[in-house]
Amino acid sequence: SAVISQKPSRDICQRGTSLTIQCQVDSQVTMMFWYRQQPGQSLTLIATANQGSEATYESGFVIDKFPISRPNLTFSTLTVSNMSPEDSSIYLCSFIQEIFGTDTQYFGPGTRLTVL
Amino acid sequence: AQSVSQHNHHVILSEAASLELGCNYSYGGTVNLFWYVQYPGQHLQLLLKYFSGDPLVKGIKGFEAEFIKSKFSFNLRKPSVQWSDTAEYFCAVNARGYSTLTFGKGTMLLVSP
Cβ separation of A92 and B43 shorter than 8 Å? Predict the structure, then answer.
């Protein structure tokens, strides 16, 4: 499968600031996703990002708070805006790869965000 | 919308014990099913998946899972666990033809040597 990386791997931020997380895949992929994993919780999908179109957000997530860019088929960014301690979480990107006619989702290593 | 339920939040086993982690989903249509594993300090990895065909699927590291459609279940099994299996295990499902995954809350497995 393709290799997926995220930057930064972790950060500690002050309330009210913003952080942009980068996700890089080493091959071209059509669909990329951003998830949040809050402490002790499962993964929750934030949005789907396809190149050339606006991201599609899940219920409870809005573009003003989590703007996403997808400038090409190998890269995406997620910004966590105007952060509060409730945004402390692990943020993961993922992509779909078709193998033998079936789609499987692969995940990046995650960005651990702590908001003070 | 789909939902996924994992029965145990924490499981503690001794090495060589057998493992079964429960996963049930709710969705009326055809689904694809996955188990992911997250070892301490590592990122989420695909353990195994079911799309169609034989309902008993085998994954990496000796894990297997059985899809029982009538029970809406996809339980993960391993006959003899090792200390290195200590990890968090997530069951996930998506509706056939859709990419969006719905995850269970995860089961933390601790294997004592």
Answer: yes
Query: pLDDT per position in chain B (113 positions), as tens?
Result: 779 999 889 999 999 999 999 999 998 888 999 999 999 888 899 999 999 899 999 998 999 999 999 999 999 999 999 999 999 999 999 887 777 889 999 999 999 98
Chain A residue with CA closest to B51: the answer is: A102
With CB atoms and an 8 Å threshold, state whether B99 touches A33. Answer: yes
Residue B88: C-alpha distances to residues A92, B8, B11, B44 (Å): 16, 11, 10, 9
Query: Which 8-state DSSP code applies to residue A87?
Result: G
Count Cβ atoms within 10 A of the Cβ of residue A87 and give its class: 0-12 exposed, 13-18 middle, 19 or more buried.
Answer: buried
Question: Residue B76 and residue B11: Cα distance in Å, rounded?
Answer: 13
Q: Does A90 touch chain B (CB under 8 A)?
A: no
Buried-state track A65-83, b at ≥16 Cβ within 10 A, e below 16: bbbbebeebbebbbebbeb
Which residues in chain B touch residue A39, judged by CB atoms under 8 angstroms apart? none
Peptide bond connecting B40 to the previous residue in cis, omega within 30 degrees of 0: no
Helix (H) or strand (E) holding B110: strand B107-112
Q: Which of B2, B6, B43, B89 is the best mutation test for A, with the most CBs of A within 10 A?
A: B43
Name which of A103, A30, A74 is nearest B46 in CA terms.
A103
Question: Measured in Å, how far apart are chain B's first and last C-alpha atoms?
Answer: 41
List, in order, residues 6 or more apart from A104 with CB less than 8 Å away: A1, A96, A97, A98, B34, B46, B49
